[in-house]
Design brief:
The chain has one helix at about 1-30, and strands spanning about 45-55, 65-80, 85-100, 100-105, 110-115, 125-140, 150-170, 175-180, 190-200, 200-210, 225-235. It has about 240 residues and is mostly beta strands. This is Outer membrane protein beta-barrel domain-containing protein.
């Protein structure tokens, strides 16, 4: 028994040294946890909006659901050492639908005629759709860190859009009327934008700074100075 105890006391330090060397070898082979100190945030976005029209004629009404889909890429460029303040410049695409009682058509000379129809019972469906290429510019503030992926953000800025496709569609008692290029259409669109949120959920508002049309009158002798307000939710991805 005495010999066994002496053997254990002799071998124990040797075993401890071998075990320590083994642990050190495993640590050397482990994948290091690398922190990206030059990280960028929120470079892809997808948004869903509810679209409202403002500066409308007196007998105007908006009916049904008017919505939009917005997506694109924004290059995030931090401007401070903590990288929680940044400038964002990007490129995106947007499609929007507006349901209302504004009817677009053409006379035999090809001029646009605009009728604001207060009789909703005579209309089966009436809408116009827009597709835009958009260029957002944002000033970005957030509470992010290299290892914090859920944070508060406030992004504000402007957005310049080119309206490359417009189409109005009316269906009622007298048939269908479609129009693709009304007179006075402002192809260049300008918006003020604000996004506020935390984590995956973000609310945004986008206010149109210029009207849809220039020098376009309705048959009721009113000007058509429609502008937009879009409110919705936005999701950002790295």
């Amino acid at each position: 028994m005495k010999k066994i105890l002496l053997a254990i006391l002799y071998l124990a330090p040797i075993y401890c040294c071998i075990a320590q060397d083994s642990d050190d070898a495993e640590d050397d082979n482990a994948i290091p946890n690398v922190v990206d100190s030059l990280y960028r945030e929120d470079q892809f976005y997808v948004g869903l909006s509810f679209n409202l029209l403002t500066n409308t004629p007196s007998n105007f009404s908006q009916n049904g659901f008017s919505g939009g889909l917005h997506l694109g890429f924004i290059r995030d460029m931090p401007i401070n050492e903590q990288r929680n303040i940044a400038i964002g410049v990007g490129l995106g695409w947007s499609t929007n639908t507006f349901n209302s009682n504004v009817v677009f058509s053409e006379n035999p000379e090809g001029n646009t005629i605009v009728v604001v129809n207060p009789d909703r019972d005579a209309v089966d469906s009436n809408r116009f759709n827009t597709n835009l290429i958009e260029m957002p510019l944002q000033f970005r503030w957030r509470t992010s860190t290299p290892t914090k992926f859920s944070f508060w953000r406030i992004y504000t800025g402007i957005k310049v859009g080119y309206l490359y496709a417009f189409r109005s569609s009316f269906r009622g008692e007298n048939g269908k009327v479609n129009l693709g290029d009304p007179d006075g259409l402002n192809r260049w669109r300008y918006f003020a934008t604000l996004t506020v949120g935390n984590g995956s959920f973000n609310a945004f508002v986008q206010y149109g700074l210029n009207p849809f049309f220039n020098d376009l009158n309705t048959v009721e002798n009113g000007t058509l100075d429609l502008q937009t307000i879009k409110v919705g939710i936005e999701f950002y991805l790295l």
